[in-house]
Amino acid sequence: MCLKGTAEKHYKRWRSEHNLFPDAIGHHIQGVTVHDGDWDSHGTIKIWNYTRGSDLYSLSL
């Protein structure tokens, strides 16, 4: 998959606009929640719930 746009645009989306992902690609990403910290702080732990095929996964970053 090729991403269109600048690196800055994609960095900004992954860093602070991740709440838009479930709306844009809800068939892959079901939600993003904060486990520890706040949304925009360095070191915040976020939990991403996503599907791959028919399996549901969670990823903490």
UniProtKB/TrEMBL annotation:
One of its GO terms (biological process) is defense response. Residues 3-54 form the Bet v I/Major latex protein domain. InterPro entries: Bet_v_I/MLP, MLP-like, START-like_dom_sf. It comes from the Eukaryota. Belongs to the MLP family. This is Bet v I/Major latex protein domain-containing protein. It comes from Brassica carinata.
